[in-house]
Amino acid sequence: MQDQPQRLLIIDDDEMFCHVMQRAMTRRGFEVEVANDAEQALMLAHRQQPDIATLDLKLEHSSGLKLLPELLDVVPECRVVVLTGYSSIATAVEAIKLGAVNYLCKPADADEILTALDKQSGDPNTELADNPPSINRVTWEHIQKVLQEHDGNISATARALGMHRRTLQRKLQKRPVRR
Questions:
Q1: Burial status of residue 64 (CB atoms within 10 A of its CB: 0-12, 13-18, 19 or more)
Q2: Considering the entire predicted model, what is its pTM?
Q3: What span, in angstroms and rounded, lies between the C-alpha atoms of 71 and 150?
Q4: Strand (E) positions, the chain?
Q5: How far is the CA of 54 from the CAs of 25, 94, 114, 144, in angstroms?
């Protein structure tokens, strides 16, 4: 049994989500700190040296994918779960390549996050989808892949996709299409 509680760093720009998650994790015995942006997250990581962290993929002024390697440089042993309301295959793969232990779609509750943090390996018995993704979902995933390839640059992504920048911005403001 541990003498002191595990340290958790929640990195998310949604203050309500942070408040709810902080309360839930504190009740489960974690010592919790909250950061609403990349700069604050790195400062707290240096100070707190968290054991685990949740990291929002889309922070207001930066990308969780850019922050992830910086966070792991500060605290290499930290287990990080990336959370997002804008999931795509491309960002999931990149998050794992960059060192995240798991990737969850929002909304995710405290129990789902703890399960994702504890999971040590893949599950070959995971059920496969019966139906292929819709054309709208495939389009969303392709846009996310191209956006990631252009480091989040909207103008460069729009040029690569052959669409107007404002059209791309409108598409990105919408919630991702479910399967």
A1: buried
A2: 0.73
A3: 22
A4: 7-11, 31-35, 52-56, 79-84, 102-105
A5: 11, 16, 10, 21
Number of neighbouring beta carbons within 10 Å of residue 81: 22
- Residue type at 82 in one-letter notation: V
Cα angle 123, 20, 50; round to 5: 65
pLDDT tens sequence across 52-68: 999 999 888 888 999 99
* The two structure tokens encoding residue 110: 């405290």
SS3 9: strand
Per the listing, tokens 């640059």 go with 153
Residue 134 token pair:
């819709």
CA-based angle 164:168:169, to the nearest 5?
115
